[in-house]
Design goal:
Layout lengths: L1 H47 L2 H9 L7 H13 L3 E6 L22 H4 L4 E7 L2 E11 L5 E10 H41 L4 H17 L3 E5 L5 E4 L1 H7 L10 H5 L3 H7 L7 E5 L2 E9 L5 E7 L1 H39 L3 H25 L3 H16 L3 E4 L12 H19 L6 E9 L2 E8 L31 H11 L3 E6 L5 E7 L9 H8 L10
Parallel strand pairs: 10-11
Antiparallel strand pairs: 1-4, 2-3, 3-4, 5-6, 5-9, 7-8, 8-9, 11-12, 12-14, 13-14
Length: 540
């Protein structure tokens, strides 16, 4: 590639030199022609102003040895002109470089000069092609009695032009040499920067890079030294929810203020940084480049984070089931002892109490929370809380109909807040978590209170920041994602999430979700459902 670039640049320099020389020579020839014609005209004017020539023209005959011929030849030799011809009004020559032509008619039309006008031209005559100047010849009274025609051979003009060409070519050659040296230096620099790759190799690498960038399932964002986005692959556009129009703008302009823009801009440093963009949990890494820019990679961890939360819930349920199994064995042993002691009434009472407590908890939840997903979540969380030494209760004000627009979203909100509350009360005496779910028209209000240490006022906004946490992350996922997701879900429903101090101490999280409930069904449908015949008792 080095030789190709060098040859192309040398060819360009040579072409420019030839073109510049041609552009210089073309006006130079015209200038030399103009100078020759003006010189011929000046000699003719000087000759015509000599009164002796006019007097001799009237007093003598046109002969090779006449005074007019002698004076014209003297002027020709003194000025270096090709010829000096004096003619009368008839067009008869009185002087000429060839004496034999004296007395004959001139070969070109002298009409304009005899009419009193001066003429400059390039023309063909008996002496060949020449630059000519013609002026009228006047007597002492100002009457035109003839004309003076002076010519400078065109070959002499061309000779001057040809004489100037070597110097021009020398300058052109010097410029070509300088251009060739500059081309060599540029080619060497390009060779080092491209690592001596051929044009075809560079084109192939570019095609491979484009295919790789737009084919990988990882977002890639490249920024220049000024912090502007210069490249976005397809996956980055999908994860960030932006298009090609973001190229050329800063992360703040393309994404808006937030943690994601801070991570891409380098204002937040570290490895495997967690950030939330829309409903996606992203892992970002940023690496500076040699030119002062940076390349950021983005990985989608939404599904992994959800799996991690499900794993946490599963582990909690497993621990709760293990505890229930242990407690169930104890109860069976107690029941067996009562039966062996023939304390049958006490055994019946003991079984009734055990079954009644579990049924009371489930019925209490299902009566107040009509959505099956939320009810099942709260029953499971109550079991987990009991295993962790905490009490999870449902507020008496809780009433939520089965008309949720996005039950899965509300399950995420409730699950995150209850998990955080259980973490906060862990290891504290009289650990309690209270959940309140109520409907206000189409608005759902969620309140989770705990008896933990609470949240200091200066941290009540920080806890909703992505990646911020006071706890060490578990092995399979990061911290600082749950509460930002809660607030984003609330914002998606047009509401908000905030934290304050609970009445008895601890933290109180409140989430308001406008338009979270659908409109009630038509009364006719309810009436039709209530008018159905009741099923027989045996069928229930």
């Amino acid at each position: 590639m080095f030789s190709q670039i060098l040859l192309m640049q040398v060819a360009i320099a040579a072409g420019v030199a030839v073109l510049a020389t041609g552009l210089f020579l073309a006006p130079l020839g015209e200038q030399l022609d103009d100078q020759a014609m003006r010189r011929a005209l000046a000699i003719a004017q000087t000759t015509a102003q000599q009164p002796q020539i006019a007097e001799d023209l009237r007093a003598t005959e046109p002969t090779p040895g006449g005074p007019v011929q002698r004076e014209a030849e003297r002027i020709r030799r003194a000025t270096g002109a090709e010829y000096v011809v004096v003619l009368d009004r008839r067009g008869v020559r009185w002087s000429h470089t060839d004496p034999e032509r004296i007395g004959g008619l001139v070969s070109t039309d002298p009409g304009e000069a005899l009419a009193g006008r001066e003429v400059m031209e390039i023309d063909e005559g008996t002496l060949g092609r020449s630059a000519r100047g013609k002026v009228p010849l006047r007597d002492a009274g100002g009457e035109v009695i003839g004309a003076v025609s002076v010519g400078i051979a065109y070959d002499s003009v061309r000779a001057r032009l040809i004489h100037a060409i070597p110097g021009l070519l020398a300058y052109a050659g010097g410029a070509l040499a300088v251009g060739a040296l500059a081309a060599w230096l540029i080619s060497r620099r390009v060779q080092r920067q491209t690592r001596d790759l051929a044009f075809s190799d560079i084109a192939a690498l570019l095609a491979e890079r484009e295919a790789m960038l737009h084919g990988i399932r990882e977002g890639v964002v490249a920024l220049d030294r000024h912090g502007r986005v210069r490249l976005l692959n397809d996956e980055a556009q999908r994860l960030l929810g932006i298009g090609e129009e973001a190229v050329g703008s800063s992360p703040d302009e393309a994404l808006g203020a937030g943690r994601t823009a801070d991570v891409l801009a380098g204002r937040v440093t570290g490895t495997d940084l967690l950030t939330v963009r829309g409903q996606r949990v992203l892992v970002a890494n940023r690496m500076p480049t040699d030119d002062g820019g940076a390349v950021a990679t983005l990985r989608d961890r939404t599904e992994l984070d959800q799996l991690g939360r499900e794993l946490d819930s599963t582990r909690g349920l497993i621990d709760a089931l293990r505890a229930q199994d242990h407690e169930h064995a104890n109860r069976m042993h107690t029941l067996l002892g009562l039966l062996e002691l023939e304390m049958y009434e006490d055994a019946v009472e003991f079984v009734g109490e055990v079954v009644g407590d579990h049924r009371a908890t489930s019925e209490q939840v299902t009566e107040r929370i009509r959505d099956p997903l939320l009810a099942a979540l709260l029953v499971g969380k109550a079991t987990v809380a009991a295993e962790r030494g905490a009490a999870l209760r449902l507020s008496d004000r809780s009433r939520l109909p089965d008309r949720l627009v996005d039950p899965r979203g509300l399950v995420t909100v409730v699950g995150n807040l209850v998990d955080n509350a259980l973490d906060a009360v862990a290891g504290t005496p009289d650990a309690r978590v209270e959940v309140e779910l109520r409907a206000e028209g189409r608005t759902a209000v969620l309140v989770v209170r705990d008896t933990g240490p609470g949240v200091p006022p200066e941290q009540r906004e920080l806890i909703f920041t992505e990646g911020w946490s006071t706890k060490e992350p578990p092995g399979h996922r990061g911290r600082g994602i749950g509460l930002p997701l809660v607030r984003r879900l609330a914002h998606r429903h047009g509401g908000d999430a905030r934290v304050g101090e609970a009445p008895g101490g601890g933290a109180e999280f409140t989430v308001v979700l406008p338009e979270a409930l659908a409109e009630p069904g038509p009364p006719a449908a309810l009436a039709g459902a209530s008018s159905r015949p009741a099923e027989p008792e045996e069928a229930r």
